[in-house]
Each structure stands twice: as C-alpha cells, then as structure tokens.
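step: validate -> pass
step: tokenize input -> pass
step: predict -> running
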Amino acid sequence: MAVHYPSFKQLQYLVALVRTGHFGQAAELCFVTQSTMSASIAELESLLGVQLVERINKRNIIIKAEAKRLAADAEQLLALADRWLGSADPTQRPIAALKVGLIPTIAPFLLPRLLPAVHRQTSPLRLENSEKTSNELVQAVTSGALDVGILALPFDTETLQVMPLFDDRFYVALPRGHSLAPATSLSAADLLGHKLLLLEKSHCLSGHTLQVCQLSTDNEVAGSSLFTLMQLVANHQGITLVPQLAVAALSALDSGLVFIEFREPGRHREVALVVRTSWANQAGVMQLAGLIRELISGPEADQGPR
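step: predict -> pass
step: emit ->
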C-alpha cells in the first residue's frame, strides 16, 4: 500500500499558520492566496487524519495543540531539507542565510532584540545585516545585492513584494522641564510654535514626520541620526518626533528626555519587509517575518512610556 507524505509546501504553510494564527497573514508570508493556504491545510488535515485548525468563522480560528506539535516537527524537517540541499550543491548558499538590509531608524532599535532571538531559534537562521537608507535598500534588494529589506512605509518600493510587519506610532521627544512635558499626549496643533528638529532628507522618517504633522518642509534639518537629535533635544535646541520602536533605547540615553505619546489619527509609519517576487527562499523570509512579529506583539514587547 502506497504511503502518502505531506509536501514541503504543506509543511511551510502549517508553520506559517501556527506562527501567525491567521490564514490571511500566513498566506502573505508564503506568497500565496488565502484560499490556497486554506485548501492546503484542509488537504493536510485529511492526509493526517487530525483536525489542525478549528474554524470559528471567516475571521477567527483556533490552532489546535496537535497543529503546534506538528509545526515544531515540520520546522525541524524544513531545516534538515535546507542543510541537505546546501550539502548537495556547494555553490548554493544555505536557505537559512539571508542578506538583510535595514534603514537607520530601525536597525539600532530592532537588531538588539532580533539577533538574540535568532540565536535562540531551533531552526537555523543566519542573518547578514547592513544599514542603508530607504532608496539604497530598495535598489539593493531589486538588484539582488540584498535578499530582504526592512523599511518604513509609506515609501515607493517599486516592484518589490511588501510584507507588513507592525505599526510604529510616534512619540514627541522633549527636554525635561519643557512647557509641553506635563501633557499625557500631544497633537500636531500642540506643536505649533515650537522648533521641530528633523533628520536629513535622505531619511524617510523626516517625510513621515512632516506628513503626519501636516507641516511644510521649512523646519530645521539638524542631524543624521536619532541619537544626534536626542542630544539637541536634551539641550533645549528643539523638539522632535521619534518612532515607538526607538523610545526605550533613546530614553536610556539621557534622563533629561521626556517622551509623550503623539495622538494624531491614522497610521504614523508601518514597518515592512520587502523582497523580490522571484526570491526562492520563502522559508527563511517566513521565519524572519514571523519572528519579528512575535518580538513586537509578544508579552515582552516595549509599548512605550506610560
């Protein structure tokens, strides 16, 4: 009697579904439609003879304990397949190795959390990291110099596949003792009449700041990094907006800094992963995206000042 085994794609789909807990997000990670993802999981359930997912309604599902156990085994099998393919062809770079580029307003704040988490992964994932501006990053991923880019939207990603990771809201950085410091939250109207410091125009954060504040470009360009801006703010040279991702690290720099939630409606900026649509290493991309989402949404995620 012939034995039918699950395909590697079905294993990848199962791992993605368990990681995200959502058919739509899992489909994005695997670059397939939601209907394809759902049908493949249903086929896997039929093949294994077990229920992996309890479908409550179109939006809500429950991942069964058996699915979580099988997904852990599937990760090991996929990692073994990666190593096997790499040993079969010495010229082929292992699937788990990714050349990743990050923009300067993300790299120093995400990598200290991401790299230890990568090291703890049971499935091998090796990252080769570099820091580039958004324009440089899109060009490098498009040309093949980088495999993956992590940047902030909105930004023109040209023909690249975009995978949203998390929303990154803004906080207003002020010197302690500033007239706005006692506030629990601030709006764009509250900032009128105050000197707003920006990064150089090569940083997309400047454009995002102006857009969310609905301001013109006649503000002072004062630094090439957020760390420089913090020194200026601490010394009462002006105020600025910083992403929530950076607040914990920046607040540790100087006790003279205060960070107030910026309450403007709509999305401030969205951190996303970009990859070529032809890039074959879906397993590595899926693992990286899932890990970042877990870091940001997990119980230890920094939610900014209270």
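step: describe -> The chain has two domains: 8-88, 95-305.
step: cleanup -> pass
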